[in-house]
Structures are given as structure tokens and as C-alpha cells.
């Protein structure tokens, strides 16, 4: 009987330890879940604020700031319109329209820039060989 009572008492001791451990987990689980949710919320808030600050920065567009060469090259024409030298015709037309709207003489631009923009479009579309402008 002694050996069976020893086995019984050791199994009860193990059971008590298991019950104590499971109570600890059950009591601490909501706390751990709450801390995890709070950490996720703070991290998400930080990421959203960082994204909004990034979106609020002005997007700087680079335009051609230099003077014009006596005879316009394909490189200069591409810089004026903001496209690559080997850009497709559709992209050249779209870029020409965008730049011309911003610099049209009827809307406050000047004739010299309008002529240079048109010359750049002609060169990139292959209509002229860089014959120079009227001005």
C-alpha cells in the first residue's frame, strides 16, 4: 500500500503543478493578448503617420534649366520635353502637350519657349534634323 500511496501522491503532485500552471496561463493570457494588441495598434499608428508624412512631401519634377544650343540635338529635345531620347511617339506627344499647356503664349507663356518646345517635338518625332529655330 505504501508504494501505491506514493504513486498516488506523486501523481496528485503532478496534477497540482499542472493545474497551477494552467491557471497561470489562463490568468495571464488576456494580459498578453492585450499587450500584443496594443503593440500592434501603436506600430500601425506609427506606420500610418509615416506614410502620410511621406505622401505630403512635394514631388519635385525636374525640368530642363539650361540655355538652348544653337542647333537643337535629340538630347536637348528630350530634356526639354522630359522624355527619353528613344521615347515612343505617344509619349512624345503626351509630353509635348503637357509642356505646351504650361508654356502656351495664349496662357501667359512666351513665343520663344513655344517655338523651342515645338522644335523639340519635331526632332524627337523625326520631322526635322535639327535645322535650328526661327529665333
TrEMBL record:
Component of the PAM complex, a complex required for the translocation of transit peptide-containing proteins from the inner membrane into the mitochondrial matrix in an ATP-dependent manner. It comes from the Eukaryota. Its main location: mitochondrion. The lineage of its organism: Eukaryota, Viridiplantae, Streptophyta, Embryophyta, Tracheophyta. GO terms for molecular function: ATPase activator activity. Residues 76-129 form the J domain. Probable component of the PAM complex at least composed of a mitochondrial HSP70 protein, TIMM44 and TIMM14. The complex interacts with the TIMM23 component of the TIM17:23 complex. Transmembrane segments: none annotated. InterPro entries: DnaJ_domain (IPR001623), J_dom_sf (IPR036869). Keywords: Membrane, Mitochondrion, Mitochondrion inner membrane. The keyword Mitochondrion applies. SMART domains: DnaJ. It comes from Stephania japonica. It is found in: Mitochondrion inner membrane. GO terms for cellular component: PAM complex, Tim23 associated import motor. One of its GO terms (biological process) is protein import into mitochondrial matrix. This is J domain-containing protein.
